[in-house]
Structures are given as C-alpha cells and as structure tokens.
Write a structure and sequence with these properties.
The complex is a heterodimer of chains A (151) and B (680). Chain A has 151 residues and is mainly beta. Chain A has helices at 59-62, 135-139, 141-147; strands spanning 4-12, 15-20, 24-29, 43-49, 52-58, 75-81, 84-90, 92-100, 104-105, 119-125, 128-133. Classes of the chains: A mainly beta (151), B alpha+beta (680).
C-alpha cells in the first residue's frame, strides 16, 4: 500500500520539478516586479499580490542556471513556508500530478550541476523524471539570512 | 484537550477582568461604603480564578483565590478597608497582571508571590499586617467578626432582606442538607438542590458559600438560608426527591429572637431592595450569568477580530480601489452612459467601505489610559504627594498601531509631572494652592491628528535652572542662550542627557530622559511641545497622526524606478546645477543656505539600472535625521501623496535602506526609503 502525494509540476530549463501542492498558494502570470536594491541576485524583487507585498525568487538564478528573458509561459509559483510567502519564477507550470510517495528516491549523485542541497529526491513516473524541491532548504532562514548583502 | 486555541481568549479576558478589578478598586477606595463595588471586583476575581484553574495556571489561580477570600471577607464586613489593605490588594492585582503578561509572552505564568499571598492570608484571617498601625484595626475587625457570629452569621444586608421578606409574607428557613456518604458528584447534587430551592423561593445565603460548594470543598453537609411562601414540609419533600440526599433539617429563622441590631434606615432599605437581585447569593450558574448580565451597564455588541484579518481585508480592499481606478479609466474611454453610472455608484460604495475598513482599526485611547489611575495612585503614595488624576476624552480613537506605541511615552510624562511638577502637600499649601495636586490627561481629535495633553498644576519649569543646566552640560553656548525664546528654553529639557531633578529619585532619573519620549513620539510621526508657567504648572502637548499605516510621502523617480520618501524626514526639495557640486574627502557636497550638505546619489547607492541620459540639473531632496542633514539626488519629483504603508514581509526582513513598501495607483509596488539608515 502506498500513499499518493499531490504535486505541482513545473519546468526550468529542460527539467521537470515538483513541489507538494499543500505548499503552493497559487500560480500567477508574470506581474510587474519592483526591484529591491542590494538584495542578492536571485531575489528579483517584490510584487503586489492582491495587496500583499510578496518577494520573488528566480529559481534559475537560485539553481545557478543562466538567466533568460521572461515570456508568455513564465509563471510565478507562490509558495508558503512557515509564515513566509515567496514567489518562485519558473519557465512554465501547467501540471498537477498524483505520485505514489514510495516512487521517490533519494537524489542520485549524478543529477547534473544542480546544487543537490535544494533537492529532496527524484521520482520516475513512466518516462518523466521529477525532481522534488526541498523548499525548506531553498528558502530556509539560514539561507535567507545570508542572502542579503551587508547594508 | 488542546488549550492553546483558548489561550488568546484567556489572555484577553484575564486582562479585562484585571482591568475591572483595578478600576473598581480605585472607585472603592473613594467610596469604601459601597459594597456592591466589592461584589463587582469579587465577580471578576472569581471568573479569573476559574479560568486560570481551567487553563492549568495554578499560581495564578492560587493568588486569585487568596485575593478572593479577602474580598469575600470585605463584602461580609469582616474586614475594615484600610489604605494598607488596598495596597496589598493592588499589589496582588499587579502580580496577577505580571503573571498574565508572562503567559501572554509565552511564559508559564509562574512568579514568586509568597509575600503577597502571605499578607493576603493574614488579612483573610483577620490578623494584622506587618505594620503596627493597623494592629488596632485588625483587632477591631476580630471583634466585629465575633459579634457577627453571635448574630446568626447574617450581615446587615442579608438581615434586611430576611426582615423585608417576612413583612411581605414570606417564611424564612435555615435548611441543613446532608448528602449521603457515598455521594459521588457532590457539586451536581448541590446544584440540583439549589435548583429545587430556586423554584420554591429566593436563596439568601449558603454556608459554605456557593463558590466553595461548586468546588466540592465541603464534607457532606451544607446549610442554605432561603425565603419562601411554601411550608417547610413541602420544601423538605422536594429536596428529598433529589437522589443521594441523606437527610434534611429545616428550621424557621426567628428574626426577633436573634435580636439583630441592624439599623434599617428607611432610605437604606430602598437602596437595598434595589440591590437585592445583585447581592443575594447566586446559587446556579445560569442564574449567575443572568444576574450578572442585568448588572452590567448596557454595552454595544462587539466581536474580537484578529488584527491580521483586518490587514488582509484592507489589502483586498486596496486592490478593489485600484481596480476601481482602472474601471473608471475604461468607462471614460468607452463613453457608455450606463457604464458611467455603474462605475460612479461603485466609487461611492468603495469610498464608504474605505471609511469603515479604516475605522475598524481604531481603538479608543482608553485602552492605554485606563492603567494610569492605578499607577498615579501608587506613585502618589511613593512620593508622599496628593494627586488627583482627571481623564478627559478617553473615548478618542486612534489606530491600533499608534495605541501600541504611545503607552510608554505617556507613562514617562505622567511620572515626570508627578515627580517634577506637582509639589509636596506642605509646599502647595505654602504657595496658597490646594493641598491636592491635579493632573489632567486629555485626548481629542483635531483634523487628521489626535492630541494628548498632560496638564499639571505644579511648580512649572524654572527657566533659569534649565538654562544653567543646559550651559553646564554644554548643550548650548552663552551666546545662543541669550537669543532663545521662552518656548525654546522649555524644549531644552527634551535634549538628551538632560534632567532637572536635583537629586535622582526612584521615579525619574533612571537614565531614560525626556529625549526618549520625544524620539518615540517623533518616530510615530508626531510631535511634542511644552508650555509652562512658573508655580502654575506645565502642559505637555503631544500631536499624533490618526494612523501609522497611512503616511504622506514624496514620490520620486530614479531612472525607471519609483521610490517614496516619507515627508516626515524631508526638509525641502531643491534643484541644483551640476557645477555647484563640490568635493570634500571623496564625498560630494553642496552648499545649502550656508550649510555644507553631503550628497547621496541614490541611483548609485541603490545600483539602479541606467537607462536615461545624465542631465545638467540635479533634483535633490533634503532630508534629516535628528539634526543632521543630507541631500538625496534623484532624477525627478513625481509628487506628494498619501500611501498605505506595508511591510516587505517576513522574508526580506533586512532590506538595505528600505523601511517598507506601498502599492501605487497602477498596482505597482514602490519602496519606501529609510532616510535614517542613509545618514550616519
């Protein structure tokens, strides 16, 4: 018997990533981003999300990929971690999947250049390979504590 | 059961009950005869005890219980009210407040209360306090107690009720009820017995008291005094129907035989009759609530809402306003009459809504003021002064965010008025003033501001002394001293490191000066001024914005980005020529009205992407931090507007030189520049 886990699937570069659906508050089309001076590179700025100022992270930059211009398919995934709401910029997002929990395997050493600390596992569903993001690590307070340059 | 979900309610309600206690204690101190006030305090204490016991805060429950015992003795006239007694009860309330605060801050509500508990216990037993002066009083109260015992354990009030009931044809009974040895749910049986008795008549008193019975702190037997039109036999039968009741003994009360000496004055009787419903012991829970409700002054119905929810509502509402603006635009482009009308109606509704949403965050300043009477009382005793505090306009409303900040500065100013303002009674008499000093605390609205005045009729400020002190502290030079106006001299006491107190007293002079008050108020976007007349008193006038969430800013453009600079830190704006810039030590400066100001190029500091050509003229915003000035170079001024202040959230907690953000009319976010971090 295995339990299913609902995830939001999104694309960056040519890979597919997943975030548990309960961590996701919504998926938005690209909104006007206001740059925050002197924030670290991957913090693109803040947006007005229905009256709430929400910081935005570009996952491409976070993962060390090259930046690309945002286009029609660019999405902002609003995630909730503890009491923080943060938007993640991804290339596109259009899938919700139920995947059995036991189909996740620990991150194999070979998955490319991606800093493995941001990944909590991979799952193979038929022919797709999903990389499960470790949001705690990707956004954790220790990380955010260092991410702002000293004023 | 998970108590956490009730914790917030518990804390809020505890604070309310404690507030009632201290308020009513102050009233009682002025009218020690009025036992209905004691009842009010008792009820609050009792509820608090029950709540804290349920929540598992034993220390809190324990101390309240001890206080309750004393209150009970007071309302049964077993103890005479003395100032020392009040001190102890106030101390107890202070401790209770401390414990509740500790719980609110996530603590366990534990606190060393042995001393207060001990004192309360002493009083409860009718023994004297540590001080010898109260020995006589204590002795008197013991005598009083003895007298009561022989008088059949009824106080004057109960006695009057009994007598009146008799006059109206009621029978008075003393009913002893014994529960069976094997009775399991004693409190439940007591409840049932009381319910039966309630149906037959009115219960006057029970021994032990109802509260004790409810807690099952009795053996098998209890006694109830009641009045009824039914016969003792009928009542006995009814009680015996309750299961697990062992036996019942009913005695008629012989009113004359006991020879009570209550002097039932006619007018007093009338008063007593009025109070009858509230003062008669209330046996059942239901009954209790009903009567409590009838006692409380009619108040409007309210609901407690978490401020975060209001913030969410406000956020959504702003979005609505922005969309309304867009609709407005579309409708004027389309030029459709019906659309016009609809949009206009919507505009009106939204502006009404806006008023409501903003008003929901308003809290009467009372929530801050109501802790002052107790503080002033205690302080007056500590300082051996006589002070009367009058509060006017406590209903004046302020935004919650301002309310939270204004308490400490006010405490400080009140302490200042008590310590430096109001003179000692002898001094006052010598000056031909009333022995009792007067402090007036007044709040009122005016325009977009709220004013709070602290007005004392004390000694006022001695100009010479202020000047001398300022000169000796090096705050100002002899030359400037000569040019100062009276008001400017008074303002000097707000300078840091300034204290006019000759000797540092316990009350003030603890290193926190009035400069802290001034800074706090200014950080709220307000201001404080003083006026004073020697030997007539001083007035401190505080001006505060209605809300902190809406501030006035100057919107500026830096390349393609927009930033907001709070008007409170702006001195003025200027346009300067590039060639007027001078260099001093790697720092570009300008000469501004004879002062050398450092120039800060925001586009460099904020690393703004460059997209526009350099121009010959620079737009400069002159800002200040304290008395330091600096010029912020921007590309253009957009204009002044009122904005709703928002935080950057929990993620970007330490953004450089940015104090918050706001949403502009087009839905975009503009960052608010924190001038304080830009100027060193």
């Amino acid at each position: 018997m295995s339990q299913d886990m609902k995830v939001i699937v999104f694309q960056i570069k040519d890979k597919e990533y997943a975030i548990p659906v309960e961590k996701v508050k919504g998926i938005e089309k690209l909104l006007h981003i206001t740059r925050v001076p002197k924030a670290v590179q991957f913090v693109k700025g803040v947006i007005n999300l229905r009256g709430v100022i929400t910081p935005i992270i570009d996952l491409r930059v976070r993962f060390g990929f090259e930046e690309v211009a945002y286009d029609e398919s660019t999405r902002i995934i609003i995630v909730i971690l503890d009491d923080m709401e943060v938007g993640l910029i991804v290339d596109s997002a259009n899938d919700v999947l139920d995947i059995p929990v036991d189909s996740f395997e620990p991150q194999p050493e070979v998955v490319g250049h991606l800093a493995s600390e941001y990944i909590s596992g991979v799952a193979k569903i038929e022919k797709r390979l999903l990389v499960l993001i470790n949001l705690e690590k990707a956004l954790s307070l220790e990380v955010t504590g260092n991410m702002l340059k000293e004023g | 059961m998970d108590m956490n979900q009730y914790l917030e309610v518990f804390i809020e309600e505890s604070k309310e009950h404690l507030q009632t206690c201290s308020e009513q204690l102050l009233v009682l101190e002025k009218n020690p005869e009025d036992l209905s006030i004691v009842n009010e305090i008792f009820r609050s204490a009792h509820t608090l005890k029950g709540m804290s016991a349920t929540m598992g805060y034993e220390d809190l429950a324990n101390l309240t219980h001890k206080m309750e015992n004393v209150l009970d003795a007071i309302r049964n006239s077993q103890i005479i009210l003395t100032p020392e007694l009040f001190d102890v009860i106030f101390l107890a309330v202070d401790d209770l407040e401390g414990m509740v605060m500790s719980i609110a801050e996530g603590g366990d509500g534990k606190r060393d209360v042995k001393r207060v508990v001990h004192q309360l216990e002493l009083i409860g037993k009718g023994e004297s306090l540590v001080s010898s002066s109260s020995a006589e009083i204590a002795a008197a109260s013991v005598v009083l107690e003895k007298e009561k015992m022989t008088a059949g354990q009824y106080d004057e009030f109960e006695w009057t009720v009994l007598q009146q009931s008799k006059d109206q044809g009621f029978n008075s009974f003393e009913i002893s009820i014994a529960l069976r040895e094997d009775c399991l749910l004693k409190a439940a049986r007591v409840f049932m017995v009381f319910e039966v008795l309630e149906k037959s008549g009115e219960i006057i008193k029970s021994h032990p008291p109802v509260e004790v019975l409810e807690e099952e702190q009795f053996d098998q037997q209890f006694t109830v005094t009641m009045v009824s039109k039914e016969s003792s036999e009928e009542i006995k039968k009814k009680i015996m129907k309750v299961s697990e009741v062992g036996h019942v003994v009913i005695n008629d009360i012989d009113l004359e035989g006991l020879g009570h000496t209550a002097n039932a004055k006619e007018d007093k009787v009338a008063e007593v009759q009025e109070q009858e419903t509230t003062n008669a012991k209330l046996p059942t829970d239901n009954n209790k609530k009903k009567k409590q409700a009838s006692f409380k002054p009619a108040s409007s119905k309210t609901i407690r809402v978490n401020i975060e929810r209001l913030d969410i509502l406000m956020n959504l509402f702003e979005e609505l306003v922005i969309d309304r603006g867009r609709l407005d635009q579309i409708s004027s482009d389309l030029d459709n009459q019906e659309l016009h009308e609809t949009v206009e109606r919507m505009s009106r509704i939204t502006s009404d809504l806006q008023t409501i949403v903003l008003n929901m965050r308003m809290v009467p300043v009372e929530t801050v003021f109501n802790r002052f009477p107790k503080m002033v009382r205690q302080l007056a005793r500590d300082l051996n002064k006589k002070v009367d505090l009058e509060i006017i306009g406590a209903e004046t409303e302020l935004d919650r965010t301002v309310i939270d900040e204004i308490g400490d500065p006010l405490v400080h100013l009140l302490r200042n008025a008590m310590d430096h303002g109001v003179e000692k009674p002898e001094e006052r008499l010598a000056k031909g003033k009333n022995e009792e000093g007067k402090i007036l605390l007044k709040a009122y609205h005016s325009g977009n501001h709220v004013f709070i005045e602290i007005d004392d009729d004390g000694a006022g400020i001695n100009k010479e002394r202020v000047l001398n002190k300022a000169l000796s502290n090096g705050i100002l030079t002899k030359e400037t001293a000569a040019t100062l106006t009276e008001k400017q001299i008074y303002e000097l006491i707000f300078a840091s490191g300034f204290s006019t107190a000759e000797t540092i007293s316990d009350v003030s002079g603890r290193g926190v000066g009035l400069d802290v008050v001034k800074n706090t108020i200014e950080s709220l976007g307000g201001s404080v001024t003083i006026d004073s007349r020697e030997n007539e008193g001083s007035i401190f006038l505080i001006q505060l914005p209605l809300t902190l969430s809406i501030i006035s800013v100057m919107l500026v453009a830096i390349q393609n980005e927009k930033y907001a600079i709070p008007l409170s830190s702006i001195i003025e704006t200027a346009i300067i020529k590039k060639e007027d810039i001078m260099n001093a030590h790697d720092q570009q400066v300008i000469d501004f009205r004879g002062k050398v100001l450092p120039l800060l190029f925001l586009k460099d500091i904020f690393e703004v992407p460059i997209s526009q050509e350099e121009v010959e003229f620079l737009s400069v915003v002159i800002v200040r931090k304290g008395d330091k000035l600096a010029g912020l170079v921007v590309d253009s001024f957009i204009g002044q507007l009122e904005i709703v202040l928002k935080s950057l959230g929990n993620y970007l907690t330490s953004a450089f030189a940015i104090s918050g953000a706001t949403i502009l009319g087009d839905g975009q976010v503009a960052l608010i520049i924190d001038c304080n971090t830009l100027i060193h």
